[in-house]
Amino acid sequence: MKTPRSLVPPALTRWRPATPYVLDTALAALVLFAVSLQWMFPDEGDDPLSWQGWLLGAATAVPLIWRRRTPCATACAVSLATPAQALYHAPPPDVMYGGMVVLYTMAAQTRPVQRRLMLTGWILGVVITMQHQSNQQPFEYAFHLMGLVSAYALGVLTRVQRAYTAELEDRAGRLERERTADTARARAEERARIARDMHDILAHAVSLMVVQAEAGPVVVRKDPDRAEATFDTIASTGREAMEQLRRILGVLKEELPPDGQPVSRLPQPSVTALPELVRQVRQSTGLHAELRTSGTPRPLSSDTEVAAYRVVQEALTNTVKHARASRALVELDWADDHVSLTVTDDGRGPSAGPGGHGLIGIRERAVACGGSAETGGAPGGGFRVAVRLPVAGDREGALG
Q1: What one-character DSSP code corresponds to residue 181?
Q2: pLDDT tens digits, one per residue of 54-63
Q3: Half-sphere exposure in the Cβ direction for 80 (13 Å, CA)
Q4: What is the pTM for the complete model shown?
Q5: Going along 196-270, which residue ranges are E strands?
Q6: Which portions of this protein are annotated as coiled-coil regions (predicted)?
Q7: Once rounded to an integer, what is the mean pLDDT over residues 160-174?
Q8: Do 376 and 387 contact (CB within 8 A), yes or no?
Q9: Phi and psi for 183 in degrees, rounded to 5?
Q10: Among 58, 61, 259, 325, fewest CB within 10 Å belongs to which?
């Protein structure tokens, strides 16, 4: 939200708060000049003049130098000098310049009780003082009273405008802080998502490559043809990992490769790629991996599609790296409002401790999609990862 543009130039706005005495001194000098006009042009008026009257008039102007630092004391000083000048009558004040300035200042800066008492006192003082003077016309009452009330009203408007502007600036500051916090939170979430993707991609690819590389020397001596297929698998696994990493890095930084063509934005893996993932693990590692599907497939959001694939990928990677298992079963169960993914192996089961980054990433992916995840020992031995993710319609309804 933008604050209203001020009519005062920015340079003057920056300079004014730093030099209040300079402006207030100039204002006091201007009021003193207006009060002294009767002495500058004495032939134009019939009122008697004296240097004591000029001093009383000066007393209504000089205190204005401190009007913003000590508004109440300034108002009291001017409030005493003005009726004294009017009663001294040499000359009486034609216009109560000082009174209008202090009433404006009181209305703009002081507490309600103070400014209301000051306004009431000035109105009563004007009425009482003028009643003790002769040859006063009715329009003079209205002139003086309207001048005081107008100055007070202008001060009230100034105070309200300042409060409104301060509220707008405070609201704009809060919105800016909230926007900054939201941006930082979004960046943190994006970094966490990218870290999970890179972990899943590298852990899966490196695990398969290590298993193949360890079996390579044995296969080379016994079955050269199979050894060639093993090395081809290592190369294809590495190329696939590089392609997925290039895709993620391309999201982080838009740039052109040396050939001038834009970075390829291949689609993210989804549930439909799970059979190929299971087949790749089975062929590359010798683990007897199997995929079973039940129910009618339902539409998933793009984030949930990627999460489902990465969860199975990470679970199979953990099985290959840590479980020492011979079998792994991937179950995909479709329901009306969710899909359940379960990966079970017959390995050595859970180890002590909270689990590594892979299991933490599985839980984070599930929660980010509005689902849940459970990891731990399988009933018949081994390890089990169970994830429940909402289908597209159910998640949209929950968010709405």
Answers
A1: H
A2: 999 999 999 9
A3: 8
A4: 0.50
A5: none
A6: none
A7: 91
A8: no
A9: -65, -45
A10: 259
